[in-house]
Write a structure and sequence with these properties.
By secondary structure, this protein is of the alpha+beta class. It has helices at about 20-30, 65-70, 85-95, 130-135, and strands spanning about 5-15, 30-40, 45-50, 55-60, 75-80, 100-105, 110-115, 120-125. The longest helix is centred in the N-terminal third of the chain and has 11 residues, at about 20-30.
Amino acid sequence: MKNLVLGIAHNGYHTAQMAQMLEFYCGKLEFKHAFTLKNDKDEPWIEYIKLADNSFVEFFYATPEHVKNGNNRYHHICLRVSDIHAVADFLKSKGVEITSGPSVGKDGNSQCWCNDPDGNPLEFMCVSPDSQQAKA
């Protein structure tokens, strides 16, 4: 597996304070707001902050339900990989349940998901050369 992992692509977090988060990361820390992904209703869904080449932080707009349940912070970690199907095959060979994918996400990248033993979501993503991440 380690020969398929290229690095950490992003960490994802829910926030109920998007304006303050963007001001902090982009204004105070001077990272670049890379792009916004919209949901199926054409509403803002995720804000991407570019930290370095191939390295982002995702901020999801927290819903009232996230805040109510106290899970308006950590969302997931994403590992950038070279071959999403090889990763899926590897996970299956180790008895790891794939919870989603392989599929293509709204950003145009191939992805699959599983959970670690504590139930934390883990995303594996193969970046498409045409994706917003690649162009950011």
